[in-house]
Amino acid sequence: MAGRLEGKVAVITGATSGMALAGARLFVEEGAHVFITGRRQDALDEAVKLIGRNVTGVQADSTDLDDLDRLFETVRQEKGAIDVLWASSGGGEQGTLGAITEEHFDAAFSLNARGTLFTVQKALPLFNDGGSILLTGSNASLRGFPDWSVYAASKAVLPAYARVWVSELRDRGIRVNVLTPGQVATPMMLDVMDADQKAAFESLIPRREMGRPEEIASVALFLASDDSSYVNGLELVADGGATVI
Questions:
Q1: Which H, E and C letters describe the chain, residue by residue?
Q2: Fewest beta carbons within 10 Å, which of 5, 142, 167, 188?
């Protein structure tokens, strides 16, 4: 039985750990050849080894436009076209109003807003008509979590991008959706949380348990595949219901 991404070419940025790495593994299982990026070569090599087959690792920082050019030139040379782009590179730090610095602001918007935009723009010349673009949002942009205003704002631009890009890309049949996870037990998250912080996060979730990277990967597969052929311009929130209670 053919996989849901059989014969497709996918690019996933920031895929050396967590949700995007789980997505890369699932996309390969479903028949895709996946290009993944990461800033650290050692982590990238480890991710490629873990995925095991049908994967190409390209060291790249999504804030560096030359790196993005090199990424898509590698894709062009090896596969010639793209069917799926998951712009997943992102991050941010806490900052309380009154103590926010220019460096804090610039770092968040450079990666989450600027990096995402130029990742998509530079991918477009290689995109097959009828393809799928996914952007990784955050439910921090949907609730008023103290100390996270800059990060939340830098993620809040992504649904606006998607709405406009749906209109601009409709003649090519390229869909654009935002996958917005909530609290997910990624290695990065678990490394910075103590037991009390983890309990506080889980208290926000109806099932009282954080999400798993594999659960977000399954949603990404849905948005990447033809299963979601009639889903376009959506912000799909996968946070266990944390934003509705």
A1: CCCCCCCCEEEECCCCCHHHHHHHHHHHHCCCEEEEEECCHHHHHHHHHHHCCCEEEEECCCCCHHHHHHHHHHHHHHCCCEEEEEECCCCCCCECCCCCCHHHHHHHHHHHHHHHHHHHHHHHHHEEEEEEEEEECCHHHCCCCCCEHHHHHHHHHHHHHHHHHHHHCHHHCCEEEEEEECCECCHHHHHHCCHHHHHHHHHCCCCCCCECHHHHHHHHHHHHCHHHCCCCCCEEEECCCHHHC
A2: 167
